[in-house]
Amino acid sequence: MIEHNTNGLRYYTFESFPAHRVAHGLYTRLGGQSQGPYQALNLGGTVGDRPEDVLANHQRLFESFSRPFESRFDVWQVHGKTMLTADQPRPQNQKHQPADGIFTDNPEVTLLMRFADCVPLVYYDPRKHVVGLVHAGWQGTLQQIAAEGVRLLQEKYNSNPKDVIVGIGPSICGECYQVREDVYQQFLSAFGQDAEEFFTRRESGLYLDLWAANIYTLKQAGVRQIENAGLCTAEHVDEWYSYRKEKGVTGRFGVVIALKA
Predict the structure, then answer these.
(1) CB distance 252 to 115 below 8 Å
(2) Collapsing DSSP states into helix, strand and coil, what is residue 104?
(3) Tens digit of pLDDT for each residue in 162-195?
(4) Which of 13, 126, 203, 251 has the fewest CB atoms within 10 Å, i.e. the most exposed one?
(5) How many structural domains compose the chain?
(6) pTM here?
């Protein structure tokens, strides 16, 4: 990934995304005005942070990203696999719709999602000029939400999966993400014996590799161009928020993407 520092904010971009055609950023927690456990660029409005600080952080991010704040389209992320397409920005007075995947082919729209251990999946089809974001926690990964994103691209925009580039952003890694036995059983039911490749048993317990599971799902859906950031949020709380490492009291970092006309 490529590091950028703008107006006191730090964000990263995927090397495989053509910068002249698409703008995107995976923003760290650095550079905002939130205090305490939410320090500093918290974008989560339902985590206990002061609303005025969260709003200021959003505005600061969009200024850094050189996009109008009014261009944003975001959703209420619910750990499902619902996909939405955004033809226009979300009106300021409109409530967030529940979804865990958002896509657009309109350069006037900036897609935004929030994360703190769950896997950010960033989609770009350079042939059809479409972008998307998907939020894949363990429940979404179990439901193979990564493939739902590919199906939406095929059905809505007539994309060929072989053309699609997917970036896997910072999230909790397989060395840190301990899960219960019932999670393992659910993955076995969904993926069959292939699910064994996603889990590691150690003396301390059972660990799930969300990166491996999502890469598997994307490849099964026909995607061949995948770039994995390989950055663990739990191991790097100096840069990222981690719900697991910080015991549930933390902020949310933002991932944004927009087409260049």
Answers:
(1) yes
(2) strand
(3) 999 999 999 999 999 999 999 999 999 999 999 9
(4) 203
(5) 1
(6) 0.97
